[in-house]
């Protein structure tokens, strides 16, 4: 009997279970007597518009095809006459064919599992194909869908009609196609269209408008993740994009919000929010019809007043620091979705991928309330954590959240090794007025004040580092007293690094300290890779490098207790990162900075017009003071130099007429920007400098200082395409020259494009 029972179950599993839509089609076919046992017609050219519940699960080069009723076929014929709903065959090629599990192996696994649990078959996983994604539904959901389908004779198998001035500085002289998908928070992407979208709790519908436009209807609690480059606009409702709230009335919404994520950074997270009072239904209809005439009639049946309507546009131009890709140092994001040709991936997600996501809303609400309250102190937030703990990503999201209630946030960058807005080796104070939606090299800007440290670590000059931080904090308090301040710190928190961190706390006098720690430390255990949990008393008792316990104490605070601040301990990002990534990020930041004035597909600094600068107008210096003065000109040639402003008392005149001046003293040096010494003319006694800085800023420069920041290697090796065959590359050793392949601009661009469609 037992053997017979298992044999019966085995046979049951070998028989494919009829899906709801297939059963519905069969009943209608039998009642109409139209198709009978005839072979199902080939409608693969329009399968992307048909609900796949009855689709065959067998692999096919054109996708799954299933039997349809005569009414459905007639409906398809009607839809073919509508130009807006037309789906071209070429569009089907964008949808990847799903990986189908081996049928025999699946039957075997199901048989084994059934022996262990007799009730295993009560919930069967249904997989159907639509646009390269799956939907999972229980038997109860299928039966409910079947009953609803049978109840209405007007229902069809189609869910919608849319499947889918200084004299020293001078120059040297169509038809739209669309598809639609309902999402139930599937990590892989978009899920199958259901027969009754009004029954779906978590819905995402995506429509392709024209060639470069995508329209998305998304409602809570579904979230989206965007990888690549795109311009966002909210047409209805509101959208949280990495902490920044975008609405139709938002000033940044007029031209769109530019997102560049996924290259050396996590994808952008977008959360729909409840519609705002400015979300007017009529405006949505008017704007959609202006974009694509007649589009509202097509998408309106699927509009939900509780949803957010997002318009995504293909971004023009190139990735910043694309030279890193050309040099094979990094790979462009791998895009898998059906609209990868637009340069981005859009996927639904179950939850936020940031480890602090559950703790962040409460902290952000507290800081926003303090920012808008006249009775509370303006927030000064210091964020600390070990290396690769996610400080930069957290600070970008926090800055975006504060920008929702204030016009500007002041960002103090105290990490010279991983700078956020300026080239490496600097400490800067930046006024942020736009949301930060990408890695550092995508939002390079001009700081309000910047100091050049000369190195990516303060280990060699801790005094200069601490003094520079104090000067930047004083500048903020003097010029931006009413703006919130966020502070990024180094990941070096041992020995001298900890003393320098204590100096930062005392100079800034924060209202809040955010420490990113591992889950092990949050659980109360001692982690060998984490600092102990910090609070006001532990920081007060620590020794600073230059500061004392009485420094920066406000009135009314006891020197014994020190200045008080709120401590927040959040979970850090865990996992190892590549040891070469910090260096790659530094190169990307420098490349992005130098290429600000160039919009071509790949940056070549030699094509910029250089500035000519007389020797006698500037001082020259090497920050480590290890190079003899007679050799300084040789060191500066073909090097990256900081364009600095130093006090006149620090300048040393030379006895040789027309020769550059020298300097005394140590860093930090107030810095205007950076440049490359392209050439030095000894007869004319001039420097030729390549820099993106405007001429009016260069009027302040009186010193060229060489630090440890070098020209990215990719810029030197790219010179090969300008040389004749047999010529050697300047400034490179012979061994390096032999390894360089002479690619033309078109070859490099073609190679990069072939790696990813988001070039």
Q: End-to-end span in angstroms? A: 65 Å
User: What structural class do you assign from the helix and strand content?
Assistant: alpha+beta
Report Rg.
31 Å
- The number of distinct helices, counting runs of at least 4 residues, comes to 21
CATH architecture assignment of the largest domain: 3-Layer(aba) Sandwich
CATH uppermost class of the largest domain: Alpha Beta
Reported for the largest beta sheet, the result is:
14 strands, mixed
Strand residue percentage: 15-25%
Walk me through the structure:
One of its GO terms (cellular component) is nucleolus. With 759 residues, this protein is α+β, with helices and mostly antiparallel strands. The protein has five domains: 112 residues, no CATH class; 148 residues, no CATH class; 212 residues, 3-Layer(aba) Sandwich (Rossmann fold), CATH 3.40.50; 111 residues, Beta Barrel (Elongation Factor Tu (Ef-tu), domain 3), CATH 2.40.30.330; 32 residues, no CATH class. It contains 21 helices and 25 strands. Strands 1, 11, 12, 13, 14, 15, 16, 17, 18, 19, 20, 23, 24 and 25 form a 14-stranded mixed beta sheet that branches. A hairpin with a 3-residue loop joins strand 2 and strand 3. The longest helix is centred in the middle third of the chain and has 18 residues. The chain is globular, with a radius of gyration of 31 Å. The N and C termini lie far apart (65 Å).
